[in-house]
Specification:
This protein has 443 residues and is of the alpha/beta class. It has two domains: 2-208, 3-Layer(aba) Sandwich (Rossmann fold), CATH 3.40.50; 227-441, 3-Layer(aba) Sandwich (Rossmann fold), CATH 3.40.50. Helix content is 39%, strand content 14%. The protein contains 14 helices and 15 strands. It has helices at residues 2-10, 25-34, 46-53, 64-72, 108-119, 137-147, 187-197, 210-241, 245-252, 276-286, 292-318, 346-356, 385-389, 405-411, and strands spanning 15-19, 38-42, 76-79, 90-93, 126-129, 158-161, 180-184, 204-207, 327-331, 360-364, 370-373, 376-379, 393-396, 415-417, 439-441. Strand 9 (327-331), helix 12 (346-356) and strand 10 form a beta-alpha-beta unit. It is elongated, with a radius of gyration of 24 Å. Bound molecules: ligand SAJ. Ligand SAJ binds next to helix 8. Residues 132, 164-168, 220-221, 224, 228, 262-263, 265, 268-270, 272-273, 335-336 line the site of ligand SAJ.
Length: 443
């Protein structure tokens, strides 16, 4: 056992496989390579394996040079050949864990990756699942598949859960400097996991089991989903009371203890926060327990796209215009500012709702050139004076930094701001603009 720990802690000829070269796996692979280990990235998409192998990044948080540097040094390579997992001393699984069409956990990518790992599992290997999932997945799903090989966990091979904590677009917290929780299927597994991960992660946080580590991640994201749901309900209440919810939140945020600021918005997007709490809710239903906070927060967050569209409807109505036939520009379709990802973005709901009302809908997003949604597709239109003046209404759904909000304020006839981003650009003496509400201009 000690020899294994020493090998992972001190060995300089280790090969670490990373399955899934997305926003989690590619940055992790680069950090492994930067630490002087040999990283082999595995992806089912040949285009991804090729582009990484050619030293290019398809992830916003990594530049091409970040990837090219470690590829040139021979420390990082990428492949679609899962048989090469046999070469790896350790394997990190960073594959998607989405929801199925029926909003249930879809761990098929984890199962497929585990099957590939089992096919070449050998003595001494460490396997770490990083994908967010419900507590129990590592022990109840992955372990049996791996022990079918006859190898024994904690002795012949080692199995851990270590949740990814990537915040896409975060300029400060990156893969290496974000503390990382890890829990083992056995205590020995955790020791081995810490020994290896400490090579390329600054701070490791071991917990007592894989289930505890799985629960940590779910708590982190459920905490966000529930607090975003709370602040969205406060926004719905403030709107009915005629109170500026952003002013209230800013003032509450002056409390130096016991309060954490969240901001209302058009809804909950991304592939984590709207998804992960449902993994826990699903698991608890199998244990006959209803996770009421999660479900209530989900209901409120899901109401927000309609709430924003109702603001557009009311504003056009006040201009004696029907939504039907009106030209409406959606400004920003990514799920949050300064990212190019539209997964679960509330902007997609808003586009659909406006189209269903008969509006002539277009969008502008500096980071998203095209949106494909089922059989529909839109392309981003230029954001210029003429385009804005041609609209009957403009609705800001994502508050990207790289947008000229002064122009938007000046050239829009009706402006709904679901992110309160224009408040900072409004001349308080301009009677045509309202810095305190969702409808900033017109209406
Ligand atoms: N949102 C609000 N109000 C808020 C905060 C967020 O409406 O006050 C919305 C955002 O616009 C977005 C969604 O919620 O649509 C999720 O936002 P997010 O800031 O949680 O961003 P994600 O999903 O990209 O990343 C999160 C990580 N973010 C932060 O901790 C700030 C982190 O929780 C996880 O590492 C990551 O999910 C993950 O991969 O689980």
């Amino acid at each position: 056992m000690n020899a294994t720990i020493e090998r992972f802690r001190d060995g300089d000829d280790l090969t670490v496989g990373v399955i899934g070269l997305g926003y989690v796996g590619l940055p992790l692979s680069v950090e492994i390579a930067r630490a002087g280990l040999h990283a082999v990235g595995f992806d089912v998409n040949p285009a991804v394996a090729t582009s990484v192998g050619e030293g290019r990044s398809h992830i916003e948080d990594l530049t091409d040079e970040d990837v090219a540097e470690v590829v040139r040094s021979g420390r990082l390579e990428a492949t679609t050949d899962m048989a090469r997992l046999a070469e790896c001393d350790a394997i990190s699984v960073c594959v998607p864990t989405p929801l199925s069409k029926t909003r249930d956990p879809d761990i098929s990518y984890v199962v497929d990756a585990t099957r590939a790992v089992a096919a070449s599992l050998r003595e001494g290997q460490l396997v770490v699942l990083e994908s967010t999932t419900y507590p129990g997945t590592t022990r109840e799903v992955m372990l049996p598949m791996l022990e079918e090989t006859g190898l024994v966990v904690g002795e012949d091979f080692f199995l851990c859960f270590s949740p990814e904590r990537v915040d896409p677009g975060n300029p400060v917290w990156k893969t290496r400097n974000t503390p990382k929780v890890i829990g083992g299927v056995t205590p020995a597994c955790a020791e081995v996991g810490v020994a290896l991960y400490s090579r390329f992660i600054d701070t490791m946080v071991p917990v007592s089991s894989a289930e505890a580590a799985e629960m940590v991640k779910i708590l982190e994201n459920t905490f966000r989903a529930v607090n975003i749901g709370l602040v969205n309900e406060v926004a719905l209440i403030a709107d009915r009371l005629g109170v500026d919810v952003w002013e209230v939140i800013e003032a509450a945020a002056t409390k130096p203890f016991g309060f954490m600021k969240f901001t209302p918005g058009p809804g909950l997007g991304g592939h984590c926060i709207p998804v992960d709490p449902h993994y826990l809710a699903w698991k608890m239903r199998t244990l006959d327990y209803r996770t009421r906070f999660i479900e209530l927060a989900s209901e409120i967050n899901a109401e927000m796209p309609e709430f924003v569209v109702n603001k557009v409807r009311a504003a056009l109505n006040a201009e004696r215009k029907a939504v039907n036939g009106s030209r409406v520009l959606v400004l920003g379709v990514a799920y949050k500012k300064d990212v190019d990802d539209v997964r679960e973005s509330p902007a997609l709901d808003i586009l659909r709702l406006l189209e269903a009302d008969g509006a002539e809908v277009s969008y502008h997003d500096p980071l998203v050139p095209e949106v494909r949604e089922d059989e529909r597709s839109w392309t981003s239109v230029p954001l210029d004076e003429a385009t804005l003046q041609a609209q009957d209404a403009v609705v800001i759904v994502t508050d990207h930094s790289d947008v000229d909000y002064a122009l938007v304020l000046r050239a829009s006839r009706v402006l709904v701001d679901a992110r309160h981003v224009t408040a900072g650009f409004i001349d308080p003496d301009d009677p045509t603009l309202n810095p305190h509400g969702w409808v900033v201009k017109g209406g």
